[in-house]
User: What shape does this take?
Amino acid sequence: MSRPLDPLGFEDEMCPVCKSRKYLNPDIVFVFNPECYHSMCLNCANRLFNDGPNQCPHAGCNKTLRRKGFRSAFFGDLAVEREVDIRRRVAAVFNQVEDDFETLQDYNNYLQMVEDLTFELVNGTDEKRRQAEAQLQAWEAEHKADIERNKKAGREADEMSRKRLAAERDAARQRRIEAMKEAEEEKRERVKNREMELDNLAKGITPATTEPSTKVQLKRRGGNRAGAATNEPLAQVSNLGADASEVERFRYRMHAGLSHPLMEKYRLDRQHVAGGYSFDDFAARALYEAFAGLGVFVEDEKEPGGGASVGGGGLSAGEVTTMAAGIAATGDVDKMDLD
Amino acid sequence: MASEDARYRETSQFEAWSFSPSQLAAMREKTNSLARQRITERILSSASNPLAPASNNTSHANTPDPSGNGTPNPNENGAPTLPDFLKPEEEALLISFYTSELLRAADHLGVPDEVRATATVFFRRFFLTNSIMTYPPQEMILVALFVGSKAEGRFPRVVEFQQRFNTKQDILAGEFLLAQGNRFNFEVRHPFRALMGAMMELRSYGDIDEQRIQAAEKRAHEILLSSPLMTDAYFHYTPSQIMFAALSLADRGLAERLIQETFHFVPPTTNSDSTPAATPLPGSDSLGTARKEGGGKGTMTNDERAAIIGTGIRDKVMGTIEACRNMLSSELPERKSHWTSESIFKSQIRPVRKKLLKCRDPDRWNLSELQRQRREQGLRREDSEERAAASNGNKDAAIFGGDLPAGAPEKKRRKVGGNGLEDPFGDPL
Assistant: This one.
């Protein structure tokens, strides 16, 4: 199957019947008949074989072809196309699997036999090809029942895998839909909570705001997947944490209208605001520091009599001095890890 | 559940660094006497056996003392003359002087308020338990500034420091020493932010002239930047008390107003038996216990309220603030000129300094030399330990030189964790 060289690299096929080329007719479609694997353009095939079986127009080819047998090639090289066809046919007959053999040796011998036969069919001389063909048919006749059974088993396996794939695809789609629904619901709930918070703020109820937001947070973390039963204690835990970090205020109250000129400067500074800096936090800290320790009377509490009742916090002065002097005095490296 | 006071009681500033005046005086006395004793011992030992170094001053004999002039040279007869030691009052004077020097250095550097205050507090705390005769105050100033910057979250370069002060001093040599002298308590509570808080609160009353508030804040801030640092206020009072004292120095009316508004709670008369209980001893006892037992949140009994914001405690708070105010007023910012004036320096500081040069500790005076010695000693010890172990691991130690400092930290860690030696961190707080 030699072809004219194509110096430009274009696969410019030519119909051997009408000599038309792809270059001249871009819509040209080539077909061939598996009887002899000679290709021609679709127009020629239609024209020649419209009136029933006819001889192959290729010089020296005596095969009688029918219109029905023509098809377009899957592979560019018709030799490959032919080999694939043959292999398919052989595989349909020799469809035994490893389980059908007693030993691996047997199976390998079988595979070797099949491959040899296939090779004869594809590349052998006429003589060999005919022999192989005969062998194939003999085998087919001999093992008809086995072939049928294996075919059925293969079909069933195919069916199974197809079903499994379909089921998987279905489940994925279902999951996607559910996730979307959940996201939708979360969004709705957030909006609802937001409105509730705003309402509460308007009514002047502040402490109620913490709870809904934690719920949303839990949901986002997937905490709600386990169901409402586990959700409840989780919420409680997080509430406890919030309480512990909450500063108990006695001497002062956070209220609107706390301001300081230095703070005002930063309130307008875009660099500070962009980072989400909370001015209320600063105000709270400043106020805390202003009033923390006002009622701590060092003189009373640190004197040996008074100090004990405060929970034994401080070391006595003597202890500290002794220890420090000990450090200063000794030359031992054990006690001084200078580095 | 912790009131503001209870939370302050948990800070290291209260637990380890708050003292009554008598305690403070006793500590200074003790530091002074211990230093005398040690220095005497050391001078005697280095004089008696100059060729066979004792364990505590190993390389002193074969390295010429770099501090030079101050060391009393033992004469050949082996009878060194003991120097005249500083008295506690003289030490206190010098510490005040060097504190003012530290503040000047901070001004020179232009560091933020917190760094300035933290460095000063570090310096004063260090020389509370270490005598000024033992470690060099001039060098410790830079160390305190350096460590103070780091404690406040600024990380200057050592080289920059040296350049700014035009010195070649090894600042890092004293770093660990200072940290140890401070018992590794790096957080110092300052009154600066508290002042802002007080101003916010005052402003929110709405009936005070803005000009007045601003003037008071300016002045109070100025006072906070020097007076509490020059005095022992940080040892005796809480930051908020210091802040109120400074505010009261700036504008007494404003401070009193704020106190009045804060301690406004009058317990209802029906609960009459609780009121006298809180009033006579509002300080330590009833305060501490009442707060601890009152565990129920939200529902405070009138007793608890009275102990925290009641009118009964107000006078006590006022009294404390007044005492602090007196202390601060002894070192108003204007007194800076006192410490920098030439005449004062000549008449008061210089004689004491001369005395100090004569009586300082020969082994501890040079910080970098001290650090070098301690390193060497540590390595020697590890060396001998390794030899004693005689394990296979010694092979590469022999090849690469066993005393690589890279191996040292692990050994030290093991040592510290291992046996119950006297912990440099002190007893558990």
Residues 21-48 of chain B form the longest helix (28 residues).
